[in-house]
Design a protein that fits this description.
Distance between the termini: 53 Å
Strand order of the largest sheet: 1-2-3-5-4
Radius of gyration: 20 Å
Structural class: alpha+beta
Number of strands: 7
C-alpha cells in the first residue's frame, strides 16, 4: 500500500501490524489489515479522477444510510491527491463462491445438496434484509456473499441504490460505469436500458436475477444463457448484452444434475421482473429445498 495512503488511513482508524492485498482492479484495491489491537479490518481504496475515485466514499455513505443489513463503517475519508477510502469489519468465513466451488461436483450427494441449498438460502435472506430497508445491492455476486459464524454478510455496496435517498457523494445517476465483466448477470430489463444508453438503476428484482445467474454459473461452470445457441461471442460484452436485451437466446439445458435446484433458479431468472420471486420468497423456497434434501440425507 502506498505510504501516503496508509498514513492517511492509519491517522483515522489506528495503526496496524500487518496488511495483505486481497484484490487489485483498475481504480480499486481491497486490503486486509490487522490492527495493533488484533482486530482484522477490510480496507477499500478507490483511486482515479471524478466519480471513480469516490466510489469507496459513496459505499461508506450507502452503508450508513441503509443500516446494519448493509454492514458497518469503521472509518472513511478522501485522499489529498484524489480518491477515497473505507474501513469495515473483516467478515470471517467462506464466500458463497467458495462454497459453490467446493460442492459443485457433488450433485448426487444429498448432504452436499443440503449444504448448497442452505448457503443459497442464506444469501437470499441477506439480500431480502437489505431490500427491506429500501435499498438494492446493485452488484450481487457470489464472492460478495460471506457466510460467517454469526450470519451471512453482503459486501461491496459501491453500487447500492435506494430510490428515496439522495446520497451526498455524487452519483445521482445510473449506471455508474458498470464493469463489462458484470454483463453476464445483468437482468434483461437492465440490459435493455444499458444497451439503449438509458440510465438503469439497480432494483430488488435485478438483484434476485443476478444472484441466481451467478449461483448457476458457480454450480455448473457455465452461464445460464446458451450463447452458442444464440450465435453470440460470450467474450464480447456488447454482443452478450444485446442478446439478453432482445430475448434472442435460450437457457442452457439441465446442466445442474439437480432438477429441483434448477427449477428454483429458473424462476429467479424469469425474463420479466414481475415474474421473479422476491428475495424473501426465493430464500424460503431454497430453505424448503434444503430441508427436503436433509431428509433424504438421513435415509
Amino acid at each position: 500500500m502506498n505510504e501516503a495512503i496508509a498514513a492517511a488511513i492509519e491517522s483515522a482508524v489506528g495503526r496496524w501490524q500487518t496488511t495483505s492485498q486481497v484484490a487489485d482492479r483498475t481504480g480499486s484495491q481491497v486490503w486486509c489489515a490487522t490492527l495493533v489491537t488484533g482486530v482484522k479490518v477490510a480496507i477499500k481504496i478507490s483511486l482515479g479522477a471524478g466519480d471513480q475515485g469516490l466510489m469507496a466514499a459513496r459505499e461508506a455513505e450507502a452503508i450508513r444510510m441503509a443500516g446494519p443489513a448493509a454492514g458497518r463503517v469503521l472509518g472513511t475519508g478522501t485522499l489529498p491527491d484524489g480518491g477515497s477510502w473505507l474501513v469495515t469489519p473483516w467478515w470471517h468465513g467462506p464466500t458463497l463462491a467458495v462454497e459453490l466451488a467446493r460442492l459443485r461436483d457433488q450433485a448426487d450427494d444429498p448432504a452436499a445438496r443440503t449444504t448448497m441449498a442452505r448457503r443459497a438460502a442464506e444469501a437470499a435472506t441477506a439480500l431480502s434484509e437489505l431490500h427491506e430497508t429500501g435499498w438494492s445491492h446493485g452488484a450481487v455476486r457470489t464472492h460478495h456473499v460471506i457466510h460467517t459464524p454469526h450470519g451471512t454478510r453482503l459486501v461491496d455496496l459501491s453500487f447500492a441504490y435506494c430510490p428515496t435517498v439522495r446520497l451526498r457523494r455524487h452519483f445521482g445517476r445510473f449506471p455508474l460505469d458498470v464493469p463489462d465483466r458484470w454483463v453476464h448477470v445483468e437482468a434483461p430489463e437492465i440490459a435493455r436500458r444499458l444497451q439503449a444508453k438509458v440510465p438503469a438503476a439497480p432494483t430488488p428484482a435485478a438483484d434476485v436475477y443476478a444472484l441466481a445467474a451467478d449461483v448457476w454459473r458457480g454450480w455448473t461452470g457455465v452461464w445460464p444463457v446458451d450463447y452458442q445457441a444464440a450465435g453470440v461471442d460470450a467474450e464480447d460484452p456488447a454482443a452478450v448484452r444485446g442478446a439478453v436485451a432482445s430475448g434472442m437466446w435460450r437457457r442452457t439445458v439441465d446442466p445442474l444434475g439437480w432438477k429441483a435446484f434448477e427449477v428454483l433458479l429458473e424462476t429467479a431468472l424469469a425474463s420479466q421482473p414481475t415474474s421473479r420471486p422476491t428475495a424473501a420468497v426465493f430464500a424460503h423456497a431454497l430453505s424448503y429445498l434444503a430441508e427436503f434434501e436433509a431428509g433424504h440425507a438421513d435415509d
